[in-house]
Amino acid sequence: MRRISPLTLLFFLVSCNSAAQEQVVSGASDTIPSAKVTLLFVGDLMQHNAQLEAARTSQGTHDYSLCFSLVKEQISRADIAIGNLEVTLGGKPYAGYPAFSAPDEFLYAIRDAGFDILLTANNHCLDRGKKGLERTILMLDSLHIPYIGTYRNKEERCQHYPLLIHKNGFRIVFLNYTYDTNGVKPTSPNIVNYIDKKIMQQDIDTARTWQPDAIIACMHWGNEYQSLPSREQRQLADWLLEQGVTHIIGSHPHVIQPMELRTDTLTGTQHAIVYSLGNFISNMSKVNTDGGLIFTLELEKDTVTPSIPNIRTRHCGYNLVWTARPTLTKEKNYIIYPTDSTSVSKLPEAARNHLNIFVKNSRKLLQQHNVGIKENKK
């Protein structure tokens, strides 16, 4: 299992049109040239009221240690693991929907599960206004967790965005944008990355000047509870690829949407598009909302002639995960189950039935609509 370690920060004298901030995901492999890097993406990390109550201890604190126990090994094994933080860390009083403010212990558990980067541009990032946005950033900074999507001011966005990560000899740029913030506007000087083609074009152009091995756009978009991407999602995905984005990872609908692996007919470059990862952990119980995807993307490049970039998508695939709720399991807390885990057999019959419905619906959807991307097998 990969040791979880903080990111090493390397600062440069910069402007908004030059390299913002390079970050190195540190670890033993950093000193050994590598031709491969594995990225892992999960969907929405949420905290509804029932989750807050389930995690509450007799001492008044919150314990999330069991929530990620069955997926921690897979997350930690990835070189770079990314999740969508769809709550604020706005402090007390803690609350779920519609204005999320999660306990700090939730962030500790996310870090300990092995996540390296968190996305903060989503429709709930302003649930607690200026205080919520800034306290969320403060907590992320205090735990040395890189984030993308929200910023205290223009200067900090210039310094930290786009996010350039160094890992295993790869240079990977991450972008993050949201369609809206539930009608709430950021308080000056706070900044939220909205889906705005003019701004996104500038960010992509900046990223391209750094000559990265990949540019990955993480988009909070689409229509809630719709299992197929909207026309707007498809059109925006086409536009992003035309501007130079390499791969696109989506969230927001709270259900899984299909994914595709496109091949550029001129260059042979392959582009992974995941329209929606679904929920990773939540209290949602509507059909198809009680689970999601772990999507893995492995990139490879030649090291014999590093002056001639030859980046390839070595493998991409997904695993289905399902959130077991205490009302079904009679356990104290919520637990994320890989649907192919041997632990599934130990679930009560009612819980297994719900899991099986999620798996059946998901596999039918993805087998019918996916292009070039299949479920990872054990």
From TrEMBL:
The keyword Signal applies. It comes from the Bacteria. The keyword Signal applies. InterPro entries: Capsule_synth_CapA (IPR019079), CW_Biosynth-Accessory (IPR052169), Metallo-depent_PP-like (IPR029052). Residues 38-284 form the Capsule synthesis protein CapA domain. Pfam families: PGA_cap. Keywords: Signal. The lineage of its organism: Bacteria, Pseudomonadati, Bacteroidota, Bacteroidia, Bacteroidales. Belongs to the CapA family. CDD domains: MPP_CapA (cd07381). This is CapA family protein. Residues 1-20 form the signal peptide. PANTHER family: CAPSULE BIOSYNTHESIS PROTEIN CAPA, POLYGLUTAMINE SYNTHESIS ACCESSORY PROTEIN RV0574C-RELATED. It comes from Bacteroides intestinalis.
